[in-house]
Amino acid sequence: MENCIFCKIATKQIPSKLIYEDDDLIAFHDINPAAPIHFLIVPKQHIATLADCDEHHVALLGKMALLAPRLAKEQGCGYQVDGQGQASGGFKTLFNTGPDGGQEVYHLHMHVIGGPKPWRGQR
Ligand code: 5GP
Ligand code: ZN
């Protein structure tokens, strides 16, 4: 897709701090992080928004969702429960959709946001 910043990142026409890549997805650090850890999981295929997805995208969306905790762990904000049942870590996942959803880049992406609090939007 011409003039799409995430298509250009996916095809390496512009650089990013890449943390993951496979045939379908890339993940890279957000250029303007809202928290100590903030990365984006992005399909290589150009899909404008979550509202443009249908049943053909179920596997892709599932893959994105399953990648989030794996990469969060690698990046230092994994969720875990210790032997005493004490939970720690964790992260927020977010799809902004459309103008009222705060979407700025119209190429589907999942935000993964975490790290020690406080950070923007979190107590
Ligand atoms: P949206 O508001 O569309 O859900 O989020 C778009 C995100 O993409 C924002 O958090 C913004 O900081 C990030 N972003 C925009 N342009 C670039 C870029 O060129 N490189 C990277 N790494 N992130 C970007
Ligand atoms: Zn695109």
TrEMBL record:
PROSITE patterns: HIT_1 (PS00892), HIT_2 (PS51084)
Transmembrane segment boundaries: none
InterPro entries: Histidine_triad_CS, Histidine_triad_HIT, HIT-like, HIT-like_sf
Record-annotated active site: H109
Top-level taxonomic group: Bacteria
Motif (Histidine triad motif): 107-111
UniProt-recorded Gene Ontology molecular function terms: catalytic activity
Gene3D superfamilies in UniProt: HIT-like
Protein name per UniProt: Histidine triad (HIT) protein
Originating species: Collimonas arenae
Source organism phylogeny: Bacteria, Pseudomonadati, Pseudomonadota, Betaproteobacteria, Burkholderiales
